[in-house]
Structures are given as C-alpha cells and as structure tokens.
Amino acid sequence: MSSLKDILTSKITVPKISALDWLHQSTSWPLLDVRSEGEFFDGHIPGSISGPILTNEERHQVGLCYKNQGQEAAITLGMSLVEPHKKQRISDWLRHFSTNVAITCWRGGLRSRFASGWLDEVAGERLKIVQITGGYKAIRRHLLTTLNSKREMWVLGGMTGSGKTALLRDLKNEKDISSEQILDLEGIALHRGSSFGNVLSEKGEKIEQPRQQTFENSVAMQLFKAEGPIVLENESTLIGKVFIPQLFKAQMKSAPLILLETPLQERIEAIFNEYVKIPLESNCPIEKLWLNLESNLKALEKRLGGQETQKCLNLMQAGLKNPINLELQAPWIELLLVQYYDKTYAHSFGRCKHSVVFKGNKTEVKNWLKENMAKRLK
C-alpha cells in the first residue's frame, strides 16, 4: 500500500466534481467529510458522514508545525501522525460506502486528495470516487446563495397550539405536493420555537440543537431541491439557539400569510398531546418531563408575572397526580395560552406587515394550499 508521501508526489487519477454539480447529484453521491470532528461539529452538510483524516489533536499539532516551520514540515508531521491509523480509517470509511462516494475537506485540498488516493487504491473499481472541487467551503457558498435567493413562499400563521406544524406534516404526505416544498424550520432546528420548545429524548434529556451553519445548510439543501412555492410556519427570528438568516427572514415577513384558526379547546388538547402525552408514550420519565416543563415556565416569570407563574406551577403540580389525563393538565395549559401566548401573538400580529390571503380551519387551509400549490406547478 502506498505511503502518504507516494500519494503526495503522484498524480491522483480520482475525478473531480464541482460543488454545484454535486448539489444537483447529491442523492447519487453520498458525502464523506474528512475534516476533523471539531470542524464537522461546527458545520456540516446534512447526511454527510464524518471520517476525519486528521483528528482534532492531530490537526492542532500540524497547524502549529505549519505556523512555526512551514508547509513541508507540517506535511511530514501529518504523514507520521496518520500513518499508524491509516488502515483503520480506511476500514471505517468503507463501512459507510459501497458503490459511490464524494469526498470533501475544507477547501478540497490535501486531505481530500489523500483520502481519495487511499480509497481508490484499496477499493478499486468496486467504489466510484469523486473529489469535490473547493470542498465544504464551495458547497456552503452555493448553499448560502440559495438561502438568500428570492423565491415564492406562503407563511402559515396562527395562535400557539393551532396545529401549524401538524398541518405541515400532513401536507408533506400529500401525493401531489413535493416534500421539499414543505419547510419545517422547527424540525430542522430540533426546537419547537417557543419557551417550551426544547425537544426531549426518550430518556428525558434535552436534544442538542444543530450548530448555526448546519441549520442553514439543511434549510438551503431543501430549498435547492424544491420546485415551485414553499410553505413554512411563521417563526420568530430565534428558534431556540439558532436563528433564521436575515435575508430569508425578510422574505418571510413580506410573504403572503395563511391563517389557521383553531378553537381554544382544540389548542389545549394539541399542546397536551405534543408536550405531555406523546413524550410520556415515548417512555420519557415523568419526573424529567415535569422538571423540564417547570423550568421552562419559570423562565417566563418576568413576562408572565410572579402571581400567574406560581398559580401555573401549582396547577402543574396538581397535574402530576395523573399526567396522562387531559382534564388535569388543561388548567395550566389554558392559563399559559390565555395569559401569555395569546397576548404575545396579538401584539406581534398587530405589528406584522403580512398580507392575509386566506384564513380558515385545518381542513379549509389544507385544501386551499393543495389547490394553489398545484396551480403553481402547472
């Protein structure tokens, strides 16, 4: 098997593909990202596999060497650090790819070149390999262009608990609507967008949100594939810890608004199902679920007021007697909706510049969107 030095001085025959061409063919070319795990964590392309050719520590050492001794010494150090782990890293990569693989690093440089050479040598003709020219940086540049480009969209609005996210899910399953046209920002952000928005795992732990770059990349990848108008929920700029980029948010603010109107009792039941029933049915521990709910409520105290907050906490405690019972949870849910969320919504809606083009219940809104999205695709 060739050494890194042989690969560095030889002419690698692995073909290259532009970042834009890869985006058009991404479903056919799964992506191997050979940047360090730290770089991958800070931002990556959705669906890509992390397979560092240099780990965080190795990359740090090579970087210091480059700064102090120059490129040649840094390459020599990189060779010596990676050589003992070469077989294992190739084996790890091959577990994920059987027919095609596109390889990227930060700028499509030496790390991509080494990885391509290794895989080509070991896998031969059974694995088709391409290198992405310009690497992750070039892919991200195209994705940011996509994210900032003007496009037709409809924004779905409505009070908290009105069922906007559920309606988006329903539309995604409609045969005449492409799933890429339904943009679920909360789903991509792993956050429901409210003070109670953090998502819990089955063990009751908070699920970590993606980093900002990864969130943007995921949104842009879907937009890149979408044909025709998109539908998305009206969101605040911040969705938990990630934010909607400025130019895309500006488009949302000026887009036509469709209002989903849902009676209070239905909204209470929807909140109960989403935040209590479904987590409990997924085996989330009751104690951790309630601790999370109470913690989120306390974070609202300055806006809700001390008296109302304590009243709501007392109602939550009473609900612990039978958490799966809607009647016991309805009082604190109703208090939160009426005293906080509905007032916040009314204030925000009064300032918005949206043009309301349709409003109705779930069935009416769904039918209107289906009909109008079909017209745009003809």
Number of separate structural domains: 2
**CATH class type of the largest domain:** Alpha Beta
Class by alpha and beta content: alpha/beta
- State the helicity in percent bands: 55-70%
The Rg value, from CA coordinates, equals: 25 Å
Biggest sheet, strands in spatial order? 1-5-4-2-3
User: What's the β-strand tally?
Assistant: 12
The first-to-last residue Cα distance is: 56 Å
Uncertain regions spanning at least 5 consecutive residues:
none
Global morphology: globular
Q: What fold name stands as the CATH topology of the largest domain?
A: Rossmann fold
Strand content: 5-15%
- How many DSSP H or I helices? 18
Largest sheet: 5 strands, parallel
Secondary-structure element pattern, one letter each: HEHEHEHHHEHEHEHEHHEEEHEHHHHHEH
The CATH architecture designation of the largest domain is 3-Layer(aba) Sandwich
Describe the structure.
With 378 residues, the protein is an alpha/beta fold. It has 2 domains: 141 residues, 3-Layer(aba) Sandwich (Oxidized Rhodanese, domain 1); 227 residues, 3-Layer(aba) Sandwich (Rossmann fold), CATH 3.40.50. The protein is built from 18 helices and 12 strands. The strands form 3 sheets. A 5-stranded parallel β-sheet has the order 1-5-4-2-3, with helices on both faces. Strands 7-8-6-11-12 form a 5-stranded parallel β-sheet, sandwiched between helices. Strand 4, helix 7 and strand 5 form a beta-alpha-beta unit. Helix 8 packs across helix 11, helix 14 runs antiparallel to helix 16 and helix 16 runs antiparallel to helix 17. The longest helix is centred in the C-terminal third of the chain and has 26 residues.
